[in-house]
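ok, trying the design again with the full structure, not the truncated one.
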């Protein structure tokens, strides 16, 4: 049975695993490795240490289905809506730009529930704290090394992490990327920002008329969400939770600072925007070094399937489209801004 490794347990990796399980013409052994301690990637959901039911989405806040996406993959939204994993976003988000035909959805159980759903559907062997460091070619197989433990061999490896992290990998993989492909991959750039999650005691009131707000006049804060309100959850037993996303300039300026120092500055700015905000019982600060993909330069656009206007999460559909059997051995295929390597003479 072919052994397939998907590196990254974010949206792309989890959906790729679920689609491979469903569509592979022959049974495959699927493994998903992630360097983090849980699934979600940039769709992660953090829990209060005092009440696991109090959660914040630290990365993606809501999912926008444009008319273009609806045309191409409505069934994915329909499945998630039927299962209650997604629900229409009805709470007011001030400053949100809506285009005609757009529908926004939120995840009542936290945005990472989407990823957990796909991983479960895939039946993959999911391993956390597996940080891939090297990929080498050994006897017609890909030998994948991680920070700790012995290397393992696979027939196919799909890399779903942000492009700069792909380019940091050592071993034969570095030489298999042609100069042209490397230049194209190097031109994919990302914004950086911080997210600060705040958890409050049950019964705390945060008295604002919105569930989320885009801020345009603060050098540090770009977006605030009362996360339980965004998901229409108001309970006397679960404390409210709030998440703040910083501006990109703040993220870039403080990229190499200690997270605790950035947290203090974000907190001060939040108090200036929402005076009288009670002290939280717990906080969680996340530095997103690779936050959202920025627009690409001309040369890269041609190499990357889809449009430069696509949100990065849609790139996963390219995996579905392109992840078909291929006939060349040791081939490398860029998939969206991700890359798949196959050491067999068939994809699966
Ligand atoms: C602050 C923020 C707000 C956003 N808001 C929205 C939004 O509202 N709506 C929306 O649709 N999108 C939003 N996005 C974008 C969205 O979150 C991403 O497009 C999507 O989650 C990307 O998923 P992915 O699986 O491609 O990558 P990731 O989620 O980054 O997954 C890659 C995974 O690879 C792992 N990894 C990296 N290197 C290694 C290694 N060497 N070995 C093993 N594992 C490794 C990482 O731990 C990670 O889990 C937002 C993103 C951020 C950061």
């Amino acid at each position: 049975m072919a052994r397939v490794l998907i590196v990254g347990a974010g949206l792309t990796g989890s959906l790729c695993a679920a689609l491979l399980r469903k569509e592979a013409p022959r049974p495959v052994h699927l493994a998903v490795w992630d360097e983090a301690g849980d699934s979600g990637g940039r769709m992660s959901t953090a829990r209060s240490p005092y009440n696991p039911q109090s959660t914040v989405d630290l990365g993606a806040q809501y999912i926008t289905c444009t008319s273009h996406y609806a045309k191409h993959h409505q069934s994915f939204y329909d499945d998630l809506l039927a299962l209650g994993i997604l629900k229409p976003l009805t709470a007011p988000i001030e400053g949100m730009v809506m285009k005609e035909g757009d529908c926004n959805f939120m995840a009542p159980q936290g945005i990472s529930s989407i990823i957990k759903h796909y991983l479960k559907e895939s039946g993959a062997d999911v391993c956390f704290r597996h940080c891939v460091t090297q990929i080498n070619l050994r006897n017609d197989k890909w030998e994948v090394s991680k920070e700790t433990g012995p290397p393992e061999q696979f027939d196919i490896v799909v890399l779903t992490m942000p492009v700069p992290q792909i380019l940091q990998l050592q071993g034969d993989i570095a030489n298999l990327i042609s100069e042209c492909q490397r230049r194209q991959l190097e031109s994919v750039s990302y914004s950086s920002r911080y997210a600060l999650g705040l958890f409050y005691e049950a019964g705390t009131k945060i008295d604002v008329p919105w569930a989320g707000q885009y801020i345009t006049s603060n050098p540090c804060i770009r977006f605030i969400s009362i996360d339980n309100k965004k998901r229409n959850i108001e309970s006397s037993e679960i404390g409210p939770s709030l998440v703040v996303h910083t501006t990109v300039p703040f993220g870039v300026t403080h990229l190499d600072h200690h997270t605790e120092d950035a947290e203090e500055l974000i907190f001060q700015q939040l108090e200036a925007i929402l005076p009288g905000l009670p002290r939280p019982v717990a906080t969680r600060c996340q530095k997103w070094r690779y936050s959202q993909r920025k627009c690409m330069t001309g040369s890269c656009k041609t190499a990357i399937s889809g449009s430069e206007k696509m949100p990065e999460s849609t790139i996963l559909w390219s995996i579905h489209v392109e992840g078909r059997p291929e006939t060349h051995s040791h081939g490398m295929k860029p998939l969206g801004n991700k890359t798949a390597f196959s050491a067999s003479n068939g994809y699966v």
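Keeping the full-length input from now on. The longest strand covers residues 132-138.
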